[in-house]
Amino acid sequence: MYATRCVIPVIKSPKDYQTYRISPQDSNRLAIIFDSTNANTSLTCCVEIFDVGGQTPPNRHQWALEMFFVLKGEGMAICDGKNMQIKAGDSLLVPPTGTHLIKNTGNSRLYTLTIMVPNEDFSELIRSGIPVELDEEDMAVLGKYDSLIPC
Question: Where is each Cupin type-2 domain found (predicted)?
Fold first, then answer.
């Protein structure tokens, strides 16, 4: 017999997201949806917003899987020297130790849902950055997904 326990889900909307630019010169921002500080588990889930021409620095993770789901825009994913075009609706899974970067190659901002498991200090790195606000364009893009959240 399984023990039952009631888990109260945490529901957030874009106005609740804490958003950071890791370094002043970075051309991408990360809006944290859930991380180990508010989800009581070792994951980081955020919306990553790339300015036109923006990109992440090349990076790799020792143990973590990182998944990107493109919400809006188009770009280039580079992983271990392989270039792949990405666009809205595409998913990319980067295995541990894969050196990768994401670059916005489109004429508008690129938005990805980015999930890392386990956290591997990713949310701590994000939170050590510079707090920034989501602007009207960001809220308009993210607000489109409000209707997908069940009541």
Answer: 48-115
Instruction: Give the CATH number of domain 15-142.
Output: 2.60.120.10
- DSSP character at residue 122: H
pTM: 0.88
Neighbours of 63 (CB within 10 A): 10
Characterise 39 by phi-psi region: left (phi > 0), alpha (psi -120 to 50), beta (else). alpha
Closest Cα partner for 33 from 21, 20, 50, 16? 16
Q: Which two tokens stand for residue 96?
A: 């541990």
- The span from the CA of 75 to the CA of 49, in Å, is 12
- Alpha carbon distance 101, 63 (integer Å): 17
Q: Comparing C-alpha atoms, which of 111, 141, 107, 145 is closest to residue 30? A: 111
